[in-house]
Amino acid sequence: MPERFEVTMPDGVRLNVEVTGPADAQVTAILLHGWTLDGRAWHRQVEALTTASVGRAVRVVTYDARGHGHSSCMALPTATVAQLGDDLATVIDTVVPTGPVVLVGHSMGGMTIMEYAHRHPAHFAARTAGLVFVSTTAEGHTHTVYGLSPRIARLIRLAETTGAGVLARCGSWRAPRALLNALRPSIRWMLFGDRCDPSDLRLVTSAVARASLRSIGGFRASIGAQHRLDTLAALAHLPAAALVGDRDRLTPPPCAESIAAALPATELTICPGAGHMLMMERPDEVNAALSGVLRRVLAEPPPRSLDATPAGTGV
């Protein structure tokens, strides 16, 4: 059973954290969920890692981002991916004070990793031993056309941006479950590809119901504006993998391809027929990529700097 506790951020926001695996594991995998989701999105990866051959060597950490899941709401100015990068640094220092970490990010979670690397380069370099990017982007909404024509996509983006601004001012309120159930066909179309397990759709709908309206609306602007290809280019020495579905309407294949181009040693996997929820739709492929990066990390002795908590961070 996972150990569950809260970690308090410097501004008082409390993050819900779950840890699975031995405290003396050789490496810790930190799994970061996407926008409007929560740590439950990774349940198939957590199960696979704890039962795989690398299980005893790996500790797994998941947590709900601020304003999501069981974590507390936050002030609107902190609803940014930059703040999420700062939160990640604090989680690492608090939950994994020593040893190498492999960072695994889905959608906004991948962007959180990039912000952590950008805002805390010394901290990142001292602690991070591997990367896995799942259905994410380093170019904001550059490639997001929702699988539609560019003209219609622009209209949808305008409506989405306007609606996000309204939701951001709604504070800690949650969307009514009845409304989300009515929107379930739209959620299925936006987030999933050819196949969708009904239990996955229920989990995603439940996660959206837990996210505060402030987080649903507030994070939208910084997600669309982020550009971190230059940051990624400095990380080319790390074992890494990038995965995307070819039916992903939010972060389509060009997003993963640009990440792989910035990180030439990255193993790029494009999953036919899959949408944005790749860790649910294609768990075997995601688990294989994650296990591959972990094995590469475990095969290499960590640098000495990984055995101590970094003395400081860079901004």
Automatic annotation (TrEMBL):
Cellular component aspect of the GO annotation: membrane
Domain AB hydrolase-1: from-to ranges: 30-289
Listed GO MF terms: catalytic activity
Gene3D superfamilies, sorted: alpha/beta hydrolase (3.40.50.1820)
One Pfam family matching this protein: Abhydrolase_6
UniProt superkingdom: Bacteria
InterPro entries: AB_hydrolase_1, AB_hydrolase_fold, AB_hydrolase_sf, Epox_hydrolase-like
Name of this protein: Pimeloyl-ACP methyl ester carboxylesterase
Organism (species): Micromonospora taraxaci
Lineage of the species this protein comes from: Bacteria, Bacillati, Actinomycetota, Actinomycetes, Micromonosporales
